[in-house]
């Protein structure tokens, strides 16, 4: 009985010592976190861990594959993995199809990105002149195009431009030749004739889906501009065009820089629309289709596809770095 009481007292004392040792440790950790303002970063750790698991680890794997001869034999274990150094990059740079796809990708972005920004800006300016209820109705209707899944939108445009009774060919075939040229529009195949007609359809599709986001963003930016500035410019005799370039555009330049970067990244990564419209025609490859072809067309070469993916990432990083530097110079970022 006496021994059991001693054991209970000893356990209680041990628990008090352990609690006392934990208390100061927690206090020191809390003081350290507050002193160095680490609480926001600790709250971001779970999200950063998820991003690292979903994005960074696959990127590391792709980087490893780009320096290997990695395909089906390596996946099945029939052949061992071979490290080939920069051979995949050399093979890519010596492939004429890579330079064709890169040229198509760049030209597509150079043409479509400004058109998307222009159309979105015009629609945003028009929405700004409407009443509140009408602006909400029109912007909601326009956002339906932006919310349409790329597969559904691509099928819709493919049907519209189909040579077998498509609406566009049917309309062009009934218009005067002096207006639409002497082409036999009744059975004109936009998808497989050449890259120019195919990417004309893809460009219209991308602009149709992207301009609502630009328009709503521009409308939100216009609401932040003080009305007194525009009224003063109007009193001074400035035309709407001059007031836009002298007042509206400079104040909204940070917004346009963000929209420009996002549009470039989105238009460089066009895959679903181009794949469904062109049907994977090699003469109409962009970089996304070219990477898909090297990765999944038999026999697949994941090493070459990995090298292409890294080249793609480097191109987008160069664009992003240029955007950040331009933003810092102009005061959009500090």
Describe the structure in your own words:
The chain has 334 residues and is mainly alpha-helical. It folds into 3 domains: 1-37; 43-85, no CATH class; 95-329, MetI-like (MetI-like fold, Orthogonal Bundle), CATH 1.10.3720. It has helices at 2-35, 39-65, 72-76, 87-93, 96-129, 132-147, 150-160, 167-173, 177-180, 195-222, 227-235, 240-251, 253-268, 272-278, 287-296, 302-329, and strands at 68-69, 82-83. It is flat and about 75 Å long. The chain starts with a helix and ends in a 5-residue tail after the last helix. Residues 12-22 have low confidence and may be disordered.
Attribute tags:
mainly alpha, 334 residues, MetI-like fold
Structural topology:
Layout (H helix, E strand, L loop, with lengths): L1 H34 L3 H27 L2 E2 L2 H5 L5 E2 L3 H7 L2 H34 L2 H16 L2 H11 L6 H7 L3 H4 L14 H28 L4 H9 L4 H12 L1 H16 L3 H7 L8 H10 L5 H28 L5
Antiparallel strand pairs: 1-2
Helix pairs in contact: 2-16, 4-16, 5-10, 5-13, 5-15, 6-10, 7-10, 7-14, 10-13, 10-14, 11-12, 13-16, 15-16
């Amino acid at each position: 009985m006496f021994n059991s009481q001693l054991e209970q007292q000893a356990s209680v004392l041990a628990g008090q010592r352990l609690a006392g040792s934990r208390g100061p440790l927690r206090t020191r950790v809390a003081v350290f976190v507050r002193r160095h303002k680490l609480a926001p970063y600790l709250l971001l750790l779970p999200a950063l861990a998820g991003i690292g698991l979903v994005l960074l680890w696959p990127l590391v794997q792709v980087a490893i594959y780009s320096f290997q001869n990695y395909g089906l034999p390596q996946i099945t274990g029939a052949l061992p993995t071979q490290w080939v150094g920069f051979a995949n990059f050399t093979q890519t740079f010596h492939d004429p199809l890579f330079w064709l796809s890169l040229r198509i990708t760049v030209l597509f972005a150079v043409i479509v990105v400004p058109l998307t920004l222009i159309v979105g800006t015009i629609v945003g300016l028009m929405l700004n002149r409407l009443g509140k209820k009408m602006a909400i109705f029109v912007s909601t209707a326009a956002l339906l195009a932006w919310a349409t899944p790329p597969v559904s939108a691509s099928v819709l445009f493919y049907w519209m431009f189909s040579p077998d009774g498509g609406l566009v060919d049917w309309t062009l075939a009934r218009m005067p030749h002096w207006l639409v040229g002497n082409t036999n529009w009744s059975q004109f195949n936009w998808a497989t004739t050449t890259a120019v007609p195919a990417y004309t359809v893809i460009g219209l599709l991308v602009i149709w889906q992207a301009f609502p986001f630009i328009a709503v963003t521009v409308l939100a930016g216009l609401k932040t501009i003080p009305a007194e500035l525009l009224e003063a410019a109007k009193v001074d005799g400035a035309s709407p065009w001059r007031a836009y370039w002298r007042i509206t555009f400079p104040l909204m330049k940070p917004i346009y820089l963000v929209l420009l970067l996002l549009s470039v990244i989105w238009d460089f990564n066009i895959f679903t629309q181009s794949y469904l419209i062109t049907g994977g025609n090699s003469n109409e490859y962009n970089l996304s289709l070219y990477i898909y072809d090297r990765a999944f067309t038999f026999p697949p070469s994941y090493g070459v596809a990995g090298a292409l993916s890294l080249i793609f990432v480097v191109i987008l990083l160069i664009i992003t770095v240029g955007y950040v530097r331009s933003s810092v110079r102009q005061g959009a970022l500090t």
